[in-house]
Amino acid sequence: MPGPYSLDASVAAAPEQLSTTLGDDVVILGLRDTVYYGLSGAGTRIWQLLPARPSVGHIVSSIVAEYDVTEERAAADLQALLAELEARGLVTIDDPRGH
Known about the structure:
This protein is 36% helix and 25% strand. The chain has helices at residues 42-49, 56-66, 71-87, and strands spanning 10-13, 17-22, 25-30, 35-39, 91-94. Helix 2 packs across helix 3 (71-87). The longest helix has 17 residues, at 71-87.
């Protein structure tokens, strides 16, 4: 399983996906597996940050500032989400540690 990622790792939406926002949710079509995926709540916010290629640390800080969650919980949940998204080919992660 991919991850854990360093706080300096940058995250971007992969080119092998198409996504759109529907209301408060994001729907993503994985072009590798032709499966639809959905994100809501903080997942939607994380996806909205990806065009800027944010670092993992920046995403954690943004989620802590915008939601009622501790930094530790936000970091752990983000690590799990990124590992899942990367495994499904929906995001690319450039980790200077080599992961």
